[in-house]
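> example.struct
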C-alpha cells in the first residue's frame, strides 16, 4: 500500500476513534457550555443556547449522563456549566460527583435559559452565550463535535476560525482516499502495532458498556429482550450485544464509549458484533484488531458522502461495516466484503434517524442483522444485483447512490422529522 494512503488511514482512525461519555450531541452542547463558562470566569446568571435542528433532534429525547435522568438542551448546557471540564472535550462530564449532580438539577431551575434555532444553514451548529452582571462570553462549535470555531469574552475574540459548512471537517484528513478495496489492503497489511492501542480501547470501552446494558435495566432493554426471546446463538448474541450498549448509553449510563463518525452508537455497532464473533469462535487477537479497523473504516467511508447528521440512520452504515468486519474475520476477501456491504445497504438503506433515544438500540439490532444477513447471503450464493432499486454495479457506485439518497433525497425528510419532533415545543 502507498505510504501516503497508509498514513492517511492511520490518521483517520485516530481522528475518528475518540472516547466520549454519553450521546455525543448533548455532550457537544455541554462542551460548548463549559468553554463559554470558562471564558466568562464565573457561574452565569443567564444562558442563551442556539442550535441547529439536527442538534435539537438528537438531544431532545436522550438522557444526559451525570444529571440524575435529565433530558434535553438546557440540561446538557447546565451540566457543562456547573460541572463540566472543557479540557476533557467529549468526556466533559466525566467524574461528576453526586453533589455536582444535585447542583446541576438546582441550576436548571434557578438560572435563566433561552433556546433558539440557528439560522446559519449549517447542519451541525451549537452556540452558547452566557451572562453574569455586565460580562458576557460566547462559544461556538460547528461542523463536528469538537470543532470549536469561536470563543470570546465581552466581544474580544479568544479564538476565531471562519469555517464554512462545506469545510466543517477543517483540519481533518481527507476521506476521499477511502475505498473498500484500499481499506481491505490496509487491514491486511497494517502493522498491528500502529493501531492496536486505539482499536483495543474501542473494544474495551464498548464491551464494558454493552455488558452494563445486558446486566442492568436501561431504557427499553432491547438487548435483553433479544436474548430472552431468541436465545444466545452467535448471530443473535452479536446484535443483542450491540443493542445493549445503546440501551445503556441512550439512557444515562456514565461509562464511556469509543465513537466512529461522531457517534457512539456507530462506534459500538461497528465493533461489538465482531468482538462477539471473535470471542465465540476463538479468533486470534490480531485478526480481531484488523477486522474491527476494517469495519471502522468502511463505516467512515459509507458516512462520508452522507454527513455526520442527517435523516439517514447512521447505524445502517455501521451495520454494513460490522457485516464486512465479520466477513473479514472469517476469511473473506474483497468479493465477500463488497457483496456483504451491498447486500446490507439494499436491506436497510432509508431507515430514518429521528434523534437519539431508546429505540436507537432496536435500529442497531436491525442494522447488525442486515450486515450479518448480507454476508450469509453471499456465502450461500445469494445476492442483490446492480439495477435492483438504487443498487449499482460495483460497491463504490452503490455507496455513491446511497450517499445521494441520504444527503440530497432525504433532506426534506430530515426537515419534516425535525418539524414533527419540535412542534410540541413551540
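> example.seq
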Amino acid at each position: 500500500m502507498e505510504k501516503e494512503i497508509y498514513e492517511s488511514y492511520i490518521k483517520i482512525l485516530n481522528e475518528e476513534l475518540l472516547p466520549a461519555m454519553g450521546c455525543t450531541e448533548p455532550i457537544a452542547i455541554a462542551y460548548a457550555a463549559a468553554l463559554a463558562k470558562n471564558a466568562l470566569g464565573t457561574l452565569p446568571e443567564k444562558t442563551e443556547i442556539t442550535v441547529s435542528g439536527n442538534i435539537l433532534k438528537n438531544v431532545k429525547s436522550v438522557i444526559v449522563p451525570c444529571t440524575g435522568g435529565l433530558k434535553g438542551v438546557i440540561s446538557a448546557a447546565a451540566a457543562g456549566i456547573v460541572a463540566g471540564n472543557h479540557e476533557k472535550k467529549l468526556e466533559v462530564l466525566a467524574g461528576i460527583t453526586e453533589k455536582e449532580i444535585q447542583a446541576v438539577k438546582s441550576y436548571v431551575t434557578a438560572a435563566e435559559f433561552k433556546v433558539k434555532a440557528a439560522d446559519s444553514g449549517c447542519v451541525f451548529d451549537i452556540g452558547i452565550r452566557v451572562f453574569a452582571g455586565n460580562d458576557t462570553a460566547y462559544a461556538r462549535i460547528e461542523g463536528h463535535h469538537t470543532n470549536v470555531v469561536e470563543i470570546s469574552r465581552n466581544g474580544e475574540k479568544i479564538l476565531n476560525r471562519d469555517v464554512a459548512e462545506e469545510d466543517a471537517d477543517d483540519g481533518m484528513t481527507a476521506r476521499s482516499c477511502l475505498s473498500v478495496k484500499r481499506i481491505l489492503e490496509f487491514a491486511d497489511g497494517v502493522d498491528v502495532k500502529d493501531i492496536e492501542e486505539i482499536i483495543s480501547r474501542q473494544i474495551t470501552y464498548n464491551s464494558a458498556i454493552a455488558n452494563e446494558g445486558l446486566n442492568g435495566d436501561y431504557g427499553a432493554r432491547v438487548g435483553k429482550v433479544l436474548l430472552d426471546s431468541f436465545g444466545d446463538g452467535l448471530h443473535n448474541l452479536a446484535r443483542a450485544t450491540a443493542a445493549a450498549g445503546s440501551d445503556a448509553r441512550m439512557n444515562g449510563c456514565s461509562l464511556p464509549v469509543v465513537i466512529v463518525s461522531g457517534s457512539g452508537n456507530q462506534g459500538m455497532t461497528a465493533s461489538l458484533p465482531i468482538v462477539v464473533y471473535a470471542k465465540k469462535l476463538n479468533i486470534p487477537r490480531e485478526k480481531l484488531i484488523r477486522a474491527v479497523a476494517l469495519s471502522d473504516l468502511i463505516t467512515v467511508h459509507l458516512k462520508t458522502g452522507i454527513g455526520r447528521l442527517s435523516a439517514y440512520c447512521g447505524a445502517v452504515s455501521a451495520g454494513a461495516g460490522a457485516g464486512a468486519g465479520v466477513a473479514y474475520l472469517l476469511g473473506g476477501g474483497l468479493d465477500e466484503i463488497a457483496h456483504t456491504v451491498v447486500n446490507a445497504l439494499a436491506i436497510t438503506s432509508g431507515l430514518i434517524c429521528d434523534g437519539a433515544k431508546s429505540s436507537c438500540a432496536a435500529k442497531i439490532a436491525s442494522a447488525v442483522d442486515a450486515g450479518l444477513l448480507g454476508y450469509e447471503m453471499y456465502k450461500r450464493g445469494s445476492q442483490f444485483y446492480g439495477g435492483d432499486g438504487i443498487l449499482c454495479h460495483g460497491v463504490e457506485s452503490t455507496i455513491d447512490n446511497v450517499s445521494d439518497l441520504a444527503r440530497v433525497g432525504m433532506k426534506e425528510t430530515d426537515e419534516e422529522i425535525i418539524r414533527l419532533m419540535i412542534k410540541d415545543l413551540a
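> remarks
The beta strands are 19-21, 46-51, 112-117, 125-132, 135-142, 148-153, 156-160, 256-258.
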